[in-house]
Amino acid sequence: MSPPAEPLQAVHLQTRALLAELRPLATEAPAALQPTWAGHLDRLEELAQFLASGGTASRTPVLNPPASHSQWALFGRLLRDKRNAAGLSRVQLARRAKLSDATVKFTETARHPPSRATLIRLIGVSELKLRWADVPGHPMPPSAETSGPLLPAERTGLASQLNCLLTPSSDSLPLIADLARFLNGAGGYVEQTHAYLDHYSAADYLALCQNSLAATTRRSHMPLGELAQRIVAISGRAPLQVIALGSGDGIQETQLVAHLMEASAPSIELCLLDISQPLLSCAYRHAADRLASAPQVKVWALQGNFHHLPLYTELHRSPTRRRSPRLFTMLGGTLANLDHEPRFLRQTLLACEVDDLLLLDVPLASASCDEPLQIKARDRLLAGGVPASYATWLGGPIWRHCKDVERVDFHWRLETRCPVPGSYALHAVATVKSSRCADHQFSLFRMGRYDPTQLARCLGELGWNEVAMVSYGGEHSLRLYRKRADGTPEAGR
Length: 493
Hints:
The chain is α/β, with parallel strands linked by helices. It has helices at residues 5-28, 34-52, 69-85, 90-97, 101-109, 116-123, 152-156, 172-183, 199-211, 213-220, 224-234, 251-262, 277-291, 341-348, 372-378, 380-384, 388-401, 452-461, and strands at residues 164-166, 187-189, 240-245, 268-274, 297-303, 326-330, 357-363, 405-415, 424-434, 440-449, 464-472, 476-483. The chain folds into two domains: 5-142, 434 Repressor (Amino-terminal Domain) (Orthogonal Bundle), CATH 1.10.260; 152-493, Rossmann fold. An eight-stranded mixed sheet has the order 1-5-4-3-6-7-12-11, sandwiched between helices. Strands 2-10-9-8 form a four-stranded mixed sheet, covered by helices on one side.
């Protein structure tokens, strides 16, 4: 019997967080100890990959036949030459490959033979044009490792099914072009959708979610199991359609579906919706692999903008379609990133029907919105400044698109007059310094904080009754709402 998926996922996230903490320390270790550090990091990387497979992958094979030191020296020189030809420094290559600087250095100097996990990451950097045939011992590429027993997705045929729909609004190239023009303007507010558009932003966001100790700890404490029991009870153990709005990497949504199955939901259709193609692809792969052994679960993806949800007819009821409860989810604090939450709930979720459910992951206010001094003293994120991982993720588009950028400084701006009564918001504001013009400021991301009583009252006025809640982590809460029969908002609201 395989170990339960959720504990393995939690340990996987913790392992990734540990790697993120250890890699900077490895670069500062004495030269004589750096090969030891690199070896330990490689083994942790292999452990992380094993956990990511759900504990089902076989142990990484040893390169056979064993390569000599001279062979690794030749490989190291080849890697160095290919890196130089690609115009990459060691640091740049390490970041592209998600490796430590020390691992790249010791591979090039043959001081420490690379693990298979390291080789996979290096060969995955397309600019290097590195091949498995270049590796001493000629190990098999990863694709050859699937020649044994088929994966669950392959056994069920899930991998061969049509699994993703593209909406007219899913073309990210015009959106990226618009963002580039805006970032070269006078400044202003950037809507949260643009934080995930290009592949680099998506990669930085994934690194933040999966490598940040704070993020992984919060995820591991999320009480999805308790809410799943409540959801199944409310739905009368009927088939469920789960529509994940802004699914990101899909880890939390997949865990929720697993808990719904444990709570005896007879069948589940999981629709992952995100505007970012890289994130959606990552989420679909994760969900399909983890849930493939459950025949009662169907997983598919929809690439689009959840602000345009009423336009997506695939999610609408048809007169002949069998009525089943729908559960809309906004996990990962997605609600808190919106610039006007009531408008979104009123206009974007207007097609919701009586008894549809809405699950929100809600950051809680540290103090009353009428007491900004108390907020500044008690809100840990505000007091600590913008974390480096946030600055890397949010500042990436500025460095890629703005002309003549010399420096980007981040700070939080507190907003106490917000659309949801009793709430406040933190705006991640970037000050862009350029050699060609005066400083510009851009509000790149919004994070709301809510008073739970007033949030429930606000949603109640929009036709959503709060039916369950569980607080976790001291600063967050999962809250479940059900659409009322009299859910039409009053005129003028």
